[in-house]
Amino acid sequence: MTDASDDAKTQDFRPEARSPRGFADKRARDLRAEKSILEAVSAVYERYGFEALDTGAFEYADALGKFLPDSDRPNEGVFALQDDDDQWMALRYDLTAPLARFAAQNWETLPKPFRRYAFGPVWRNEKPGPGRFRQFIQCDADTVGSARPEADAEIIAMAVEGLEAAGLPRGASVLKINNRKLLNGLLTGAGATSEGQKLAVLRAVDKLDRLGVEGVRLLLGEGRLDDSGDFTKGAGLAGKAIDSVLDFVQAGVGGRSATLNNIAKVVAGSAEGDEGLEELAKIDAALTSLGVADDQAIIDPSIVRGLEYYTGTVFEAELLLSTTDEKGNKVTFGSIGGGGRYDDLVARFTGQPVPATGFSFGVSRLAAALRAAGREPTSAARGPVVIINFDQAHMGEYFAVAGQLRAAGIPAEVYLGTSGMRPQMKYADRRLSPAAIMLGGDEIAAGTVTIKDLDLGRELAAGVADNAAWKAERPGQQTIPRGDLVAAVKKIIGG
Prior knowledge:
This protein is α+β, with helices and mostly antiparallel strands. The chain has helices at 4-12, 28-47, 96-106, 149-166, 180-190, 195-205, 208-220, 239-249, 256-267, 271-289, 347-350, 363-372, 395-407, 421-430, 441-446, 454-461, 467-473, 485-493, and strands at 51-52, 58-60, 80-82, 88-91, 114-123, 135-144, 173-179, 223-225, 231-233, 297-299, 313-319, 323-324, 330-331, 335-341, 356-362, 385-387, 412-414, 435-438, 448-453, 477-481. It has two domains: 28-207 and 235-378, BirA Bifunctional Protein, domain 2; 383-493, 3-Layer(aba) Sandwich (Rossmann fold), CATH 3.40.50.800. α13 (395-407) links the parallel β16 and β17 (412-414). It contains 18 helices and 20 strands. It is elongated, with a radius of gyration of 29 Å. Keywords: Aminoacyl-tRNA synthetase, ATP-binding, Cytoplasm, Ligase, Nucleotide-binding, Protein biosynthesis.
C-alpha cells in the first residue's frame, strides 16, 4: 500500500529532457544537406544501371556475420531483441549483410550480376564519441555475381563520380586502391603463414601515417614501446621480410601504371601476388577507359582497409580538402568512404562462392566534411517565405497568399504566434527565410503586397555603418501588385 507522499512524488516526477548517447537530433539544415547528397549520388548510381533496394531495419542476428551471438543475449556490437518465436533479431549494423541475405534468399529470381544501391540508417551498439554515433546513414552500391576486375573498376569510377556530384570537386578527394592478394603473396614468400601473424602485419601497416616508417618497422619486428611506456607486441618478421613489406607499402609513387611496376619488383614470383597484380592491371585499364585519371584514383599499397574481411581489391576514399570546425580549428576527416571485393559473404548462406564488390560511405560524415570545408549545399540553409500576421481579421487573406505561393512550389507559412511585427521579422530571420510578405489593410484595399527581401537585407547589413539611415532606406523592400507576387518571390529565391 502506498501513502499520499509516494503518490505526490510520482505526480511531481519530471523526466530530464536528454538524448540517448550516440543518437543525434537533426534539424532542417542537416536533413537537407543529407538529402542533397543522397539525391545527387543516387542519380549517378542509376545512370550506371544500379537498382534501388531497401531492406528492413531488422535482420536475424545469425545473419550478421562477424556479429553472431556468442551469449544468451547477442547485444555485443548490435541492438538486439527476441521475437515472439524466440529468435533473436538485431538492428542492421551495415547495409552489406542485408544485401548478402537478400541475394541468397532471392538468387534464383535475380538478374545476374545483381547491381543494387541502397541508403538508410544503420545502428551500432558501441561506445559513442566525437563524430562516432550509434545511428547514422550509409549509402552503398554493390555488384553481386561478377568476379571480373572490371566490376571493381566500375564501382571505383562510380564512387569518384558520386563524390563529385555530392559536392567534392575534382582534387577534393581521391580513391586509393590496393589488393589483399599482393600482401598475402608477399607475406607467404616472407614466411608469415599464420593468420594471426598476417593480421599483425596488416595492423602495423595501417599505422604508417601515424607512426612513420620506423614505427611500423618496429611493429613488423619484435614490437614497439610507445611514449606512455606501453609495449605493443610485433608481428615477429625477420629483417629481410620487414624490408620487403616496407618496400611494398612505399611503392605508390607516380601514376597507377608506375606503381604497378614498382609493386611487381617486390612481389614477383608469388602466385597470389601475381594474381593480384593482374587484377589491378585490369582495373587500371578499365578506369582509363572510363575516363578516371591518376589524380582521381590511385594505387596505394599502404591501404589495408579491412583486409582480413575483403578477399581481393580494396579501395578507400580520402578527403584532401582543408577542413575546420565552427571555431576555426583544423580538423582531419581522412577516410570518407571505402569498400572492396568480398567474395565470401553470400556463401555463408548458400555454401557456394558468390563474387561481390561494393563501395559505402557515411552520408552524415560526408555532410559534416562538406560543411567543415565550406562546401555545404546552399539550399541547406533556406527557410520558408513568412507572411507577417498583422490582424486576426485578415487571416483569410494571409492564408490565401500562402496558398498562392505553395501552389507555385514556393515554401510559405503564415506566422501563427502572438508577437508583434518586429518579433515576427526576427522569427523570419531566424528561420533563414528568403523573404517576408506584409499585407496590411491598405495593401488589401489597393490589391498590392509588400515584400521584404531578407536575403538581400542580410547581405547589405554586413556593411552598414549608419543604423538610422539603414532603417530609413528600407533596403530590399518593394510594394507590387498582388498578381506579381509569385514572380517577384521567385526572382528573390533565384527560381
